[in-house]
Amino acid sequence: MNWDVISEYIPLYVEAAKLTVKLGVIGIIIAILVGIVCAIISYYKVPVLKQITQVYIELSRNTPLLIQLFFIYYGLPKIGIPTNPEACGIVGLAFLGGSYMAEAFRSGLEAIEPIQEESAYSLGMNKIQTMRFVIIPQAAAISVPAFVANIIFLLKETSVFSAVSLLDLMFTAKDLIGLYYKTSEALFLLVVFYLIILLPVSVLGTLLERRLRYAGFGS
Question: Which of 74, 125, 144, 214 could pair covalently with 120 via S-S, beta carbons 3.0-4.6 A apart?
Fold first, then answer.
């Protein structure tokens, strides 16, 4: 292991990590929003939309992210929809993540006892108020472990972004290995930077789960 080479490569990995985190965060935020909408549609069994949501979830969960990226990057321009590597990465991550977030949040919604919704209605709340003040806070707390697991999973999935020419961590590692044959150093930094990104998410997720449960949610 050549530590001089490692110190020379670090700035390249820092830039790659910034891009990885930026695309990952944007994609995950969109995935959470898509997941919440899909979960609510499934929970309330909205006609037509429920069937569309089910098709989307099955399609997304049963196809690899790499194939989805190829379809977006190479397929959409064929039908006149322009795209670029960064947009492709964000849309692909959101498309995949939305289905996982939807299932996680749906399980949280279904864990809420029906009596709570009925009690809210008896107090004069309408459906929107009941969902906002009674159902969603508890469902979100219950779903925290699954949400955190999905966030970590999606951040790891960014490793396939290199397939559409994004200069992420994996692309940087493969590029340096191909140019200079410093395999050990390049892979060592790849592991270190993914740990730097993922470990704080795991720790914060655990702390958030404990805090919510201590406050009485999700128990």
Answer: 125
